[in-house]
Design brief:
Length: about 80
């Protein structure tokens, strides 16, 4: 197993899907650090609120389609730096 140097302790990741988004935050932020959210606006607002509660400042999102656009806009509006990768 390799050891990686952590370069951003306040970052999280999102796997964007057409029906659900899977989000992972650092394990020291919450007992359940991986959560699933829906894709509708209320779900995305809940996701953004949870990320802010977990003190996340930067998100790396993975998406193969256009499903990232709404999440990107809501997260960016809430002050989270978003990277589409």
């Amino acid at each position: 197993m390799s050891n990686f140097t952590q370069i951003n302790p306040n970052a999280a990741g999102i796997d964007i899907g057409s029906e659900e988004h899977w989000v992972c935050v650092p394990p020291d932020r919450t007992p359940q650090n991986v959560r699933k959210f829906g894709c509708f606006t209320p779900d995305l607002i809940e996701m953004a609120s949870w990320l802010l509660e977990c003190r996340v400042e930067t998100i790396a999102m993975e998406s193969t389609g256009v499903y990232w656009i709404s999440a990107f806009q809501i997260l960016e509006e809430r002050g989270i730096e978003v990277k589409l990768v």
